[in-house]
Every structure is written in structure tokens, then in C-alpha cells.
Amino acid sequence: MSSGEAAAAAAVATPKPAPEVLAFNPNWAQLQQKLKARRPAKPSRSTDVGPETLVGSVLGKRKEREEPVPDASPPVALSPTSADCSLTDALAMDCEMVGVSSEGNKSAIGRVTLVNSYGNVVYDEYVRPMERIVDFRTRISGIRPKNMKKAKDFCEVQDKVAELIKGKLLVGHALHNDLKVLLLGHPKKDIRDTSEYELLRRGNRTRGLKHLAAEILGVNIQENEHCPIEDARAAMFIYMKYKKEWEKNLKKQFKLKAKLNKRKTKKKKKKQMDAKKS
């Protein structure tokens, strides 16, 4: 073997230095640290779950599962069923009261509203009562001192309302209170009062218009200050819903009453004739 071949063989047989040897170079070590710092940490494949994570997860799922779906809120106002603003055969009336007298505990009319069978307003006026207003009862009536600036005199309103309801079916809730403050009367046969109709009562107890509207019409009224337009509409729409049966029952009652009156009249005449004979 020549000296050149021997040197080549020695070079091939000599092993390369291990990576660990290169690691002793300070520059190489610094580079390795930088590379490790930039590498994202691998997510752990462990299936163990810490107590905090478990509690949060369970509570989160439970809260999401048990959260009730809110029901659709009923509408807060009633709207007319037609654009017809004519004077229909039935009119609904509602009044808002103010307090008069020295202590303000006597009721007087402060506003009156009439709507037709479609719920459209045919008359709506603030009223200046004959006595001085002591309590505007704004929390319920919605009437304020500024409303009296455009209010009409009591006698003018009284005459107009009497003219409008003459010969009409008058619908409302506890109408005796409204007619009382207006100092008006109306034929009993022409009154349709939602507080007195037997199918709307609970035994011998009357029910408030607010509860009737929520149950029958599915609307919220009288949430804060009362609105006579809304109250009159509610009474009218309740009447219209029961109109067919209501009128049928009234017809039977009137027939029975007429029959009883006829019998009484006959008995009275017979007694008079017997008295003459004797």
C-alpha cells in the first residue's frame, strides 16, 4: 500500500465528532435556546381534567341547558280593526276621573272617550269639571294641569256625549261610574257592561278590565297611567268577541221579563174586575 492510499484509508476510518461535542460551542448553545423558545408548546394529550375545569364545564353546560326560552310578550296596546270612523250601532265609553272637594276624595270627570265598534275614536275630550280640581290623580288618570288648558266645559261635553250615545248600545266596564260623573242616564236594555256579563264574572265577583283584557284579548293594559282610548277599545273588543252569545242571552231575558210582566198585568186586572163584581 502506498503512503497516499494509507492516508485516505485513515481519513475514512476516522469518525466525525458527535453532536454533543459541538454543543460545547457557546454560540451553538445560544441558538438552540432561541429555537426552543420560539417553538409552540404541544398540547397535552392527558385525559386528566382538573377540578376547576370540571366544575366550570359542568356548571356552564347546566346553565345553558336550563336557561328558559322567553315567551313572546303580548302586545301592550290595542289597535283599531278597521279605518272606519263612523258612528256604529255600538259605542264604547271610558272616563278618567280627577279629585274635587276640599280633600279631593270626590270624583269628577277629567276626560271622556268614545270609540266605535272597530275601536276608532269618535270623541275624545279633556273636561273642565264644575268644581275646582284638588287632585289630578295623574298616576292613574294620566291627566295633568297642562291638559286643562285645552279642556272643554262640563256642560258642553255632557251635551255632546248625550247626543252621541242616544239610541246606541253603550259598551264599557263599570259604566255606572262613567254615567254618574257625566250626570247622564242610559236605557238599561242598551247597556253592555263587561263587569256585569255573567260569563265574564267569577261567581258573584266582578273582574277588572285589566285581567279580562289579558285573559280574553291577550294584551296588557293599565300598566301605568290609564288610557281611556285603550280601555274603551278593550271593552268594545271583549263585547264583540262575546256579542253573538251575549245578545242571544239578553233576548231570552227580555222575553222572559216581558212574559212575567204580562202575567202580573193580567192578575192585576183580574183582581180589579173581581173587586168591582163584589
Automatic annotation (TrEMBL):
Residues 89-248 form the Exonuclease domain. It holds the Pfam family RNase_T. GO terms for molecular function: 3'-5' exonuclease activity. It is found in: Nucleus. Residues 33-81, 257-278 are annotated as: Disordered. The keyword Hydrolase applies. The keyword Amino-acid biosynthesis does not apply. Keywords: Exonuclease, Hydrolase, Nuclease, Nucleus. GO terms for biological process: rRNA processing. InterPro entries: REX4_DEDDh_dom (IPR037431), REXO1/3/4-like (IPR047021), Ribonucl_H (IPR013520). GO terms for cellular component: nucleus. Residues 257-271 have a biased composition (Basic residues). This is Exonuclease domain-containing protein. The lineage of its organism: Eukaryota, Viridiplantae, Streptophyta, Embryophyta, Tracheophyta.
